[in-house]
Amino acid sequence: MVNYLIFYYQKDNIFSFNALAGAIESDSYLNGINISFIRKQEDLVKEIKKLVSNNINVILGLSFFTTQIWDMAELINTLRKKFARKVLIIAGGPHPTGDPLGTLNMGVDIVVIGEGEQTLIEILKKIRDKGDLKLIKGIALLDNENNIKFTGKREPIDLNQFPPLPQKNIKFGAIEITRGCPYMCFFCQTSYIFGTSPRHRNIDSICKAIEFMKKFNKNDIRFITPNAFSYGSIDGKSLNLPKLEELLVKIKTILNPKGKIFLGSFPSEVRPEHVTKKSLDLVMKYAANDNLVIGAQSGSQKILNSCNRGHNTEDVYNAVKLITNSGLKVNVDFIFGLPNETDEDVELTFSFMKKLTERGARIHAHTFMPLPKTPFAKLPVKLFTPNFKKQIELLNRRGFLYGDWKKQEKLAIKISKYLIESKLDHV
Length: 427
Prior knowledge:
Layout: E1 3-8, H1 14-25, E2 34-38, H2 41-53, E3 57-63, H3 69-83, E4 87-92, H4 94-98, H5 100-105, E5 110-112, H6 117-129, E6 139-142, E7 148-150, E8 175-176, E9 178-179, H7 190-194, E10 199-200, H8 203-215, E11 220-224, H9 241-255, E12 260-262, H10 277-286, E13 291-297, H11 301-306, H12 313-325, E14 329-336, H13 343-358, E15 362-367, H14 386-397, E16 401-402, H15 405-421
Parallel strand pairs: 1-2, 1-3, 3-4, 4-5, 8-11, 11-12, 13-14, 14-15, 15-16
Antiparallel strand pairs: 5-6, 6-7, 9-10
């Protein structure tokens, strides 16, 4: 039977699938596998129906965040009703890694825990050879009694072993240059999924991907990294700006004269304590972005400490001052409703935000959402007070603040209930 792999290519998950497709293409044993990227659920159902009717073995790849679990559960439920077990469903990404049992209980066959490149290659090989999936490290399955079975932890991959983008099944997007974060913030999954030792993709690998993009007139280059200024750093905390500059120089040489580099703006940001005159000089000299995104998260030092942020409010203020003095705009991320936050902490945060906006900053407001595999995963969330909403709406009307905090507030309560009760009311 022919194997056909479909990636459910949602906007929020394209970077994951780009990396996975690139990894599959790097293994010659899998050259015969067909890969399809489908964005809409109705198109996905039609394609699977066509393939199954032609006796083609369908493998569906899902990658998703905790915010997407209800949509994914509904999709899986629909597919199981229509096709039963004629489709093998593999799920990975932040939520399945943090909540493998819950993901399996949605109807998924295999959960990939952590990095997926090497694991997915081995899964596809085992399927092709009709081998024993339980011999593959880094996955979780249900046994005949519906108990979860974890096959063991996989060692971190060498990013340079796989290209960042596929070149046969052509897809473009931001290029991951660093994986892993040393800071272990208690609300963030990155360190708990990818480890605390940063791994950097080497300059040659990055440049090869950019040269390929240039052939298709894709000349705007963006990066995926936990901290845009940390490229080349051994520990992710002390900067290696000469290495970062070497990367930027080589990219600039490839792109000239039309290309643009975006460093420290979407989809990545920078740590406030890493904003220095020298790091800003690199942005001004080589990058095209007119803004930087920095993570503050709170204006209360007590809350920053309780989240294990590793910086102080003074670092944030100094970063904003340096950035605005350089002529760049600055967007500052804040998370409201963090665990242990009191009314006094909220007032400190609003006061600090006012101070930053007076320096020219815009505030990007987020609501705390508990995430699996983090220390804050099962801590309760609470609704915002009328006074809080009044203050944040005032900042919004004045043009100092933006963000989906209202939508996130409702979602946070649903997520918290799910993580505490392990029950998914999805359809």
